[in-house]
Amino acid sequence: MISATSLINNNIGSSSAFTVCRRRRAGGIGAMRAPDSVVTTEEDGVLRVRIHLSELRRGADVDLQLSPCKLVLTAADAQYHLELPLPEHARDEEAVAKYDRRSHTLTVTIPLTLTASHADALSTNSSAPSVAANGGSPGGDRTHSQDLMQEARAAHAAAAAKRDSAAAIAAAASEKAAIAARAASEADAETAEKVAAMRRATERVAMARAAVQAAVGDESRAFLELESARATSAAAHDVAVAARAEASTAKEDAIIAAALAEASADPGACGGQRESAAAVPAARASGPIPAEAAASLASCPIASARPTEPHCSETESAVTQVLPEWVTWKQDEKEVAFILEVPAILEQTLEIEVKSSKLCLSFSARADHSRGEASDHKEGDAGAAQCTRHAVAINLAGEVDSAQMRKHVADLNMMLVLTKAQPALWDDLQPPAVLLGQGHPTR
Questions:
Q1: How far apart are CA 247 and CA 392, in angstroms?
Q2: Residue 335's closest CA among 425, 231, 243, 237?
Q3: What is the pLDDT of residues 385-396, one digit of tens each?
Q4: What is the pTM of this model?
Q5: For residue 85, how far is the Cα from the chain centroid?
Q6: Rounded Cα–Cα distance for residues 32 and 26 (Å)
Q7: Please, what is the average pLDDT of the chain?
Q8: Fewer C-beta within 10 Å: the chain N or C terminus?
Q9: Exposed e or buried b for every residue in 348-387, given b needs 16+ CB within 10 A?
Q10: H-type helices in 86-138, by residue range?
Q11: 71 CB-contact burial (10 Å; exposed 0-12 / middle 13-18 / buried 19+)
């Protein structure tokens, strides 16, 4: 008996004599069926049985049993069953079975025991020419032998052609497998490259997100710093306003002192106003100057004439390196701006002279510097109110365009903007010369 584990793949050739058993229903096995084809050949003392099983997937599913008189095949999964009688001289214990998965063919090789009749037949076939030579009647035997030889040659040629075809098919399959392997390798390399590109893109996105977060943090810090700078600027502005108020108070005190001095020098000029002027310092300590005292001072002449301010040509030697406290300046590459921190400037008294590298200006400002009232006075009212005259000459570090000048007069200060002849940042501004000091009272 041969078990299924002895089945292996192999290509088996054909021989000259064979018998074909076509598919038939196996009796007594229910739904089982016969194989697709069964071919038996006997050659050189060997019996070969080729069984074609198209529905069989693997040889391990075959149950093959051999006895001295019968071959029994059963494949339960594929529902195949075959019972094939064997010659009496078959040596079943030496049989070998091989299964070819490509052709779905099971080949069983069974050696045969040579009997006397078989030996005589072989001897007759081999000695046929000598019988003819001895005068016998070998014609029929010779013809039969030649037919057998031709059939054997044809079978051998057919087997060789099948082997060559199978080899060509195998070579083509191998080439296709190699091409498929190369394509798979290239696809794997392309996939790996895409994965690497995706990884790099992910890293770039992460870096971009980190940069955005850092930029947001920097923007937040810059906003906080800007708010802090604004608060500091507002505090500085409040301090400057308070300082200007104190300076205005000091100027008013100086004007009052001058009025008192004039009244003391000329008692008849001011008459009964001396008492009002004398009461002003005491009144200032407890609050604003009384309206009656201010009216008395306004009607008392302090200066008899307005001094004449010199022009730029007359002050070449009067320029100093100290700016008045009420003059500040700023610049960029194209312009330079001057801020005159003097309240209640009378715009109709403003005199400005701009040379290539020098600025001269003079103006009058109301001593009471009431908010909103400076622009309401006309040229004719300048002499009726108590005023202070300011004048300054400023040497510039570079040349300016005298035709391009802008000014703006406000209640508390004045801005003057000059355009530079050549765009550049000046290292320093040569401080102006104060022509009339901090100012003097006029009528």
A1: 19
A2: 425
A3: 588 899 988 888
A4: 0.29
A5: 81
A6: 7
A7: 74
A8: N
A9: ebeeeebeeebbbbbbbbbbbbeeeebeebeeeebeebbb
A10: 116-126, 128-133
A11: buried
